[in-house]
C-alpha cells in the first residue's frame, strides 16, 4: 500500500469513529473519546527531544501520556488525538509495541517522515477537524491568519494543524510554511496556488528566502520562545521560484518551546494565471 493510501486509510478510520460516536458539533474532545474507550490520559515529564506523546500498553489495557512541557492546549489535544490514531488505526498497536507490554514514543505535529507518525497526524486532524464541520466553521470565520486563529479557538486545536486544514479547504491563495532557523521543514499550498503553472514548491531543507520577513524573524530566538507575532508583506516570487510578482500578506508566529516558526502567506485577491503563463512562454 502506498503512503498516500495509508494516509487515506487513517483519515477514514477517524471519520468512522466520528460516525460511530455520533459527533455532530465542534469542538471534539479527544480526552472524552479516550475515556469512552477506557484509555487513561495523563501528562508525563519528558526530556526526550521532540517527543510529544506516548502510547502505553499493558496486556489489553492502553494508556496515553502527553509531554508536560507542551504549553499549548490545542497541541495537547492534537497530541492525544495522535495517540488515539495509534490505538485505532489497524496494525499500529502491533507494529509499534512489540508484545503485550511496552511504550511507543511519538513525534506529532507533522514533523516526522515516519509513515506511522504521518498516519496518526492525519487521523488527528480528521478527528478534531472533520471536513463537513470545519468547512461550516470556515464559512463564518473570515479569511487569512485571523480566520485560522478563530478556527483554532473553535476546534481547540493547535495553530499549526488548523492552518494546514484551512489551507486545504481555502479558495484563496494560501501557503503554510514551517521553518527553523534558516531551514524550511515543510510547506503546504492551497489549490489556487498549486494551479500556477511552473511555480516551484519549497522543499524540505531548502533555505528560508533571506529577503523575507520570516528570515529576519528567525534570527532572534526570543521571537520564537515568546510566541511573538509579526505581520508584513512579501511578494510570492520571493518565496517560490518562477512565481508571479504578486504581493501577499506574511503573518508569522513563533511556536514557543517547540522551537519553530509558523508562516502564513495569504491574499484574498485572485492571482491571474495568464500573467505567469506568459512569463513561462
Explain how this protein is built.
The chain has two domains: 127 residues, no CATH class; 96 residues, Beta-Lactamase, CATH 3.30.450. It is 42% helix and 21% strand. It is globular. The C terminus is likely disordered.
Name the strands of the widest sheet in spatial order. 6-5-9-8-7
Q: Segments where pLDDT lies below 50 for 5+ residues?
A: 275-281
Domain count: 2
Based on CA atoms alone, the radius of gyration comes out at 19 Å
* Main sheet attributes: strand count, strand direction, barrel closure: 5 strands, antiparallel
Q: Could you say which structural class the secondary elements and strand pairing correspond to?
A: alpha+beta
Give the overall shape, derived from the CA principal axes. Answer: globular
What's the N-to-C terminus distance? 39 Å
Mean pLDDT: 93
Count of separate DSSP helical elements = 13
Helix content: 40-55%
Q: Count the E strands.
A: 9
- Order of helix and strand elements from N to C terminus: HHEEEHHEHHHHEEHHHEHEEH
Query: Approximately how much beta-strand content do the residues carry?
Result: 15-25%
List its salient traits.
281 residues; alpha+beta; Beta-Lactamase; 5-stranded antiparallel beta sheet; 42% helix
Amino acid at each position: 500500500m502506498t503512503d498516500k493510501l495509508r494516509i487515506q486509510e487513517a483519515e477514514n478510520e477517524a471519520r468512522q469513529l466520528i460516525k460511530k460516536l455520533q459527533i455532530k458539533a465542534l469542538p471534539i474532545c479527544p480526552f472524552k473519546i479516550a475515556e469512552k474507550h477506557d484509555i487513561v490520559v495523563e501528562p508525563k515529564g519528558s526530556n526526550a527531544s521532540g517527543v510529544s506523546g506516548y502510547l502505553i500498553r499493558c496486556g489489553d489495557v492502553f494508556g496515553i501520556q502527553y509531554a508536560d512541557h507542551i504549553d499549548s492546549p490545542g497541541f495537547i489535544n492534537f497530541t492525544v488525538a495522535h495517540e488515539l490514531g495509534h490505538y485505532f488505526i489497524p496494525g499500529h498497536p502491533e507494529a509499534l509495541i512489540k508484545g503485550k507490554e511496552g511504550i511507543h514514543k511519538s513525534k506529532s505535529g507533522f514533523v516526522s517522515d515516519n509513515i506511522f507518525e504521518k498516519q496518526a497526524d492525519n487521523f488527528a486532524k480528521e478527528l478534531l477537524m472533520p471536513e463537513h464541520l470545519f468547512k461550516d466553521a470556515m464559512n463564518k470565520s473570515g479569511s487569512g491568519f485571523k480566520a485560522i486563529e478563530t478556527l483554532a479557538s473553535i476546534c481547540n486545536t493547535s495553530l499549526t494543524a488548523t492552518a494546514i486544514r484551512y489551507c486545504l479547504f481555502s479558495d484563496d491563495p494560501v501557503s503554510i510554511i514551517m521553518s527553523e532557523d534558516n531551514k524550511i521543514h515543510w510547506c503546504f499550498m492551497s489549490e489556487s496556488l498549486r494551479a500556477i503553472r511552473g511555480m516551484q514548491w519549497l522543499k524540505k531543507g531548502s533555505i528560508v528566502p533571506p529577503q523575507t520577513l520570516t528570515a529576519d524573524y528567525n534570527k532572534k530566538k526570543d521571537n520564537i520562545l515568546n510566541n511573538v507575532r509579526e505581520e508584513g508583506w512579501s511578494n510570492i516570487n520571493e518565496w517560490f521560484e518562477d512565481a508571479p510578482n504578486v504581493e501577499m500578506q506574511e503573518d508569522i508566529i513563533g511556536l514557543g518551546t517547540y522551537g519553530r516558526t509558523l508562516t502564513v502567506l495569504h491574499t484574498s485577491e485572485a492571482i491571474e494565471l495568464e500573467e505567469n503563463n506568459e512569463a513561462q512562454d
